[in-house]
Amino acid sequence: MSHTFSSLFTHFVFSTKERATFLDPELRPRLFSYLGGIAREQNATLVSANGAADHIHLLALLHPTIAPADFVRTLKAGSSRWIHETFSDLAGFAWQTGYGAFSVSKSNVETVVAYIRGQEEHHRKMTFKEELLALLRKHDLDYDERYLWD
Question: Do the Cβ atoms of 98 and 147 come closer than 8 Å?
């Protein structure tokens, strides 16, 4: 085949370090816009972004030359730097070390977008810990809960 064809939608989830509640409702839209810019610099498209005070969900369409780990590392580093430079009162801000990355088929993109958009409502009923455990189980991923939280 003479061309590369890909459809690499990935649902990323990661929290602030120790799930500290740094991400207030006024900060989040600016953060998501900034993350969208970082994604574009990596030849990716940020399809949807939302979250809660202690974590975020991103749906991204990745270019086939970028590994998910590199994508997330660049997002976290760039957004951490931006937060520290822009918001002096958030000097203690940090992202957790790990992340979740879940593949999404094109046929499920709208369902995942709706899920991400509904985060505020969703977290009135479920904590981030409960949500992450449910995502890990849904995707049949092995984990040891002793090592999930930093």
Answer: no
Question: Smallest Cα–Cα separation from 61: which of 24, 17, 12, 111?
Answer: 12
- Name the strands in the sheet holding 100-104, side by side, starting at the edge strand that comes first in the sequence: 45-52, 55-62, 8-15, 100-104
- What's the rounded mean pLDDT across residues 1-11? 88
Structure token pair of residue 145: 């809960």
* Spatial distance between the Cα atoms of 46 and 38, rounded to a whole number of angstroms: 9
The pTM is what?
Answer: 0.93
DSSP 17: G
- Return the CATH number of the domain spanning residue range 8-140: 3.30.70.1290
Is 74 a residue whose pLDDT tops 70? yes
